[in-house]
Amino acid sequence: MRAVRIHATGGREVIQIDAVPVPNPGAGEALVRMEAVGVNFIDIYHRTGQYRVDMPFTLGQEGAGVVERVGTGVAEVHPGDRVAFSNVDRSYADYVAAPAWRLVPVPADLTAEQAAAAMLQGMTAQYLASATYPIRAGETALVHAAGGGVGQLLVQMIKRRGGRVIATVSSEAKAAVARSAGADEVINYSQVDFAAEVARLTNGGGVAVVYDSVGRDTFERSLDCAALRGMVVLFGQASGRVGPFDPQVLNAKGGLFLTRPSLHLYTHTRAELLQRAADVLGGVADGSLRLRIDRTFPLDEAAEAHGYLESRHATGKLLLIP
Ligand code: NDP
């Protein structure tokens, strides 16, 4: 089978298509024949070395497909089941041997593409808005990169809970996407000082919560946007890693709360995973959560997909089709 692997960290040129044996599902694992594979920013962090991995490394964390075989002791799924997953390594491949407890059932009215597109970004938006900071009706949130994959889903999740959203984006095209997701205010942070705009839009009070996935380029100014005792959720580093940080700054800026969460910490048990996945996949199925699949690429063109995500032109989910 094909596996999209890296043997060293680096640019897109380190991505190669290797022929490897189909894995055997071990105890507690299921072999999934992949039908759609999600492309995420974490795949770029793995490739570039921002997150360390052992080599050779098969890229990918997300996808959907059909269970072919199961190993010993598997009760969660059966051969023939349509399943989707996130936070499982080695998904840029024709087959994945996945821990069975991480596989969730795909509703009959969703395609594999929709399921693969919704899992990682959708559950991220879901936990950020409902668990990391359970936003309440009438509160205002600042969402950076709101025209991107997670961003536009997070805007919808906040609106669903009755919050007000101030969004940042870098282009007019992304502003339109953020607005159609429900953003109340949109700031082009490549043209104006977003913190000054947030102060103006909140009459100087700041926002209850900042959701920052951009990292290095925005983090400091994000701290200036939070209200007294507000929360800053740093959940990504698309522009680069945030440097060392003095906690006293949180005091000086109003007794702020800072957290750095990850999806795997919020899908820690099967019950929690199934609950978040059902909320997201159910929302896509009943139309209350709008999923935007921007582009699909053949599996062999994973490097092109990375290039498109890095270019900042993507306005939704990118998928690889084996
Ligand atoms: P996106 O589609 O949102 O793409 C990233 C966005 O970041 C771009 O669209 C761009 O928006 C913005 N950006 C700002 N600076 C840069 C830069 N220098 N290079 C590239 N992009 C930049 O990707 P995803 O939806 O896959 O992921 C969004 C973020 O969420 C990532 O940071 C990712 O790591 C994080 N994430 C975190 C998870 C967690 O649990 N902690 C789980 C899933 C994702 P614009 O052009 O408008 O600035």
Describe, in plain words, how this protein is organized in 3D:
By secondary structure, this protein is of the alpha/beta class. It has 9 helices and 16 strands. It has helices at 41-48, 112-132, 149-160, 172-181, 194-201, 219-225, 248-252, 270-286, 302-310, and strands at 2-6, 16-19, 29-39, 57-58, 63-70, 82-85, 95-99, 104-105, 140-143, 164-169, 185-188, 207-212, 226-234, 257-259, 293-298, 317-321. Strands 3, 5, 6, 7, 8, 15 and 16 form a 7-stranded mixed β-sheet that branches. Strand 10 (164-169), helix 4 and strand 11 (185-188) form a beta-alpha-beta unit. Helix 2 (112-132) crosses helix 3. The longest helix is centred in the middle third of the chain and has 21 residues, at 112-132. 48% of the residues are buried. The model has no long low-confidence stretch (mean pLDDT 97). NADPH dihydro-nicotinamide-adenine-dinucleotide phosphate binds at residues 40-42, 120-121, 124, 145, 147-151, 169-170, 174, 213-214, 217, 235-239, 261-263, 310, 312, 314. NADPH dihydro-nicotinamide-adenine-dinucleotide phosphate is lined by residues 40-42, 120-121, 124, 145, 147-151, 169-170, 174, 213-214, 217, 235-239, 261-263, 310, 312, 314.
Contiguous low-pLDDT stretches (5 residues minimum) are none
Strand count, sense and closure of the main sheet?
A: 7 strands, mixed
The helix-strand sequence is EEEHEEEEEHEHEHEHEHEHEHEHE
Output mean pLDDT: 97
User: Could you say which structural class the secondary elements and strand pairing correspond to?
Assistant: alpha/beta
